[in-house]
Design a protein that fits this description.
Elements lengths: L3 E4 L3 E7 L14 E7 L1 H11 L4 E8 L3 H9 L3 E8 L5 E7 L5 E6 L8 H8 L7 E4 L6 H10 L3 E4 L18 E5 H7 L8 H8 L3 E5 L5 E4 L4 E4 L12 H14 L4 H15 L12 H8 L6 E4 L1
Parallel strand pairs: 1-4, 1-8, 2-6, 4-5, 8-9, 9-10, 10-11
Antiparallel strand pairs: 2-3, 6-7, 11-12, 12-13, 13-14
Helix pairs in contact: 1-7, 3-4, 7-8, 8-9
Family: Belongs to the carbohydrate kinase PfkB family. Ribokinase subfamily.
Cofactor: Mg(2+)
Keywords: ATP-binding, Carbohydrate metabolism, Cytoplasm, Kinase, Magnesium, Metal-binding, Nucleotide-binding, Potassium, Transferase
Length: 305
């Protein structure tokens, strides 16, 4: 089995369910509040593990973050490369979720912002050529991690979320698989809403590109082809971990040499199940649940060229 290293964020998610996302100058009351283990990194590691992949998580928490490490261990994720920062708190996210399941998020990175180049080098030295490094944009030194992993011959998968201006300066030509939503993709090419989004993005990345579009499905592109699959029809409760679930399942399926179409369908099914449940990590389905879902649900193929 190909080993997957996820160098990613670890957060405490504080979720407030509201009638609508708060506007500037407005005060609203939450219907409910809850706290969960989260962070895009943690979510994607759990999705990988529940999809059956062998996952190593590297990251940084504060002294208040032991429970997050325990949460990953419970999901059969190797956390031997997670460091505890003596001076910084664990990262946290404050998440509003409205009645349609849409969300707005404010993140305090905490210890995630103190991952050093030395820590990255130390972790990467435990991995070999052709193994996989997965990255998001919630930690420090992402550009360096891409460069260092590529130099060692690892396959780099990058989810540029949350999108920041710094992403434009990352060595994206060394990324083997970029998975972004439509907004993030537009920001990367510095032309939001561009009709030629796919070819422009492919020119930035020396590999494959996936653009997730929520209810409109997902687009996959490489140098030879473009493939689009529609989303499954479900009633959303919470979309917080939908993208993270898709990413984990897609990468896990690719390590099994599943054909691209199959990877997209399985990952889309996992994300569809996820949005019908509240929370982040706790909403991510198991591989058995995804298989059962697929026996009675199929996405509609839109484009294949």
């Amino acid at each position: 089995m190909i080993r997957i290293l996820n160098l990613g964020s670890l957060n405490l998610d504080r979720v407030l369910r509201v009638d609508h996302i708060v506007k500037p100058g407005e005060t609203v009351s939450a219907r409910t509040t809850a706290s969960y283990a989260g962070g895009k990194g943690a979510n994607q590691s759990v999705a990988l593990a529940r999809a059956g992949a062998g996952v190593f998580h590297a990251g940084r928490v504060g002294q208040d973050g032991r429970w997050l490490i325990d949460k990953l261990n419970t999901a059969d994720i190797d956390t031997s490369h997670v460091e505890t920062d003596p001076d910084q708190p664990t990262g946290s996210a404050f998440i509003q979720v409205d009645g349609r399941g849409e969300n707005a998020i404010v993140v305090d990175p905490g210890a995630n912002a103190y991952i050093t180049r030395a820590q990255i080098d130390q972790v990467l030295n435990h991995f070999q050529q052709h193994e996989i490094l997965l990255l998001q944009n919630e930690i420090s030194n992402v550009g360096y991690a891409i460069e260092a992993a590529a130099e060692r011959g690892l396959s780099v998968c990058f989810n540029p979320a949350p999108i920041t201006p710094a992403v434009a300066d990352y060595p994206l030509n060394k990324v083997d698989l970029l998975i972004a939503n439509h907004h993030e993709a537009g920001e990367i090419i510095q032309k939001p809403g561009a009709r030629d989004l796919i070819p422009r993005l492919r020119d930035k990345v020396d590999g494959r590109v996936i653009i997730t579009m929520g209810e409109r499905g997902v687009v996959y592109a490489d140098r030879q082809s473009v493939m689009q699959i529609d989303a499954f029809t479900v009633e959303p409760v919470d979309t917080i971990a939908a993208g993270d679930t898709f990413i984990g399942y897609f990468i896990a399926e690719r390590t099994r040499a599943t054909p691209i179409r199959g990877c997209l369908e399985i990952a889309s099914a996992a994300a569809a199940i996820c949005v019908t449940r509240p929370g982040a990590i706790d909403a991510i389905p198991t591989r058995e649940e995804v298989a059962a879902f697929l026996t009675s649900n199929q996405p509609r193929q839109l484009t294949d060229s």
